[in-house]
Amino acid sequence: MAIGTDIIVGFCGETEEDFLATYNLMKTVRFDSAFMFKYSPRKGTIAERKFIDDVPPEEKGRRLAAIIELQEKISLDINKTFIGKTVEVLVEDESKRNPNQLFGKTDGFKTTVFPKDNAKTGQLVQVRITDATAHTLLGNISDF
């Protein structure tokens, strides 16, 4: 199982205490991944009409940088636990960085990159994980 989330920092009225509660929740839950943003008003939304955007841009930036740094560490720690394991991957396409590699997703939505080895888009393959980054599992197609 993998758990992901979306987090917005600097919403109208967010205090340092509110931010720290979010930060500490992230440390406790240890999300596999997170989409993280700083709040900005959107025309026509209730927030834009009814709330004052009172968190300074510099503070929003500081808070966003802090949660990104935390999430990168957590994601890397989690992804490293896959090293030495074999995972099933749905092949999506050729890697953008290397035409000799493919990428796909595990059932926990982890991006996995591996050599082509005759695998094709849409195929399920077993990949033995040899390395990991905060965003990607790296491996080789396994025989079993």
Q: What's this, in brief?
A:
The protein has 144 residues and is α/β, with parallel strands linked by helices. 30% of the residues lie in helices and 31% in strands. The strands form 2 sheets. Strands 3-4-5-7-6 form a 5-stranded mixed beta barrel.
General description of the model:
By secondary structure, the chain is of the alpha/beta class. The protein folds into two domains: 4-80, 2-Layer Sandwich (Transcription Regulator spoIIAA); 86-141, Nucleic acid-binding proteins (OB fold (Dihydrolipoamide Acetyltransferase, E2P), Beta Barrel). Helix content is 30%, strand content 31%. The protein has three helices and seven strands. The protein has helices at 16-29, 46-50, 57-80; strands spanning 4-9, 33-38, 86-94, 101-105, 111-115, 124-132, 137-141. The chain has a five-stranded mixed barrel. A two-stranded parallel ribbon has the order 1-2. Strand 3 and strand 4 (101-105) form a beta hairpin. The two termini are 22 Å apart. 19% of the residues are buried.
Strand portion, in percent?
25-35%
Low-confidence segments, ≥5 residues, pLDDT <50? none
Helix content: 25-40%
The topology string of helices and strands comes to: EHEHHEEEEE
User: How does the overall form come out from the CA principal axes?
Assistant: elongated
Multimerization status: single chain
The total beta strand count reads 7
Instruction: Quickly name the level 1 CATH class of the largest domain.
Output: Alpha Beta
Query: What is the fold-level CATH name, i.e. the topology of the largest domain?
Result: Transcription Regulator spoIIAA
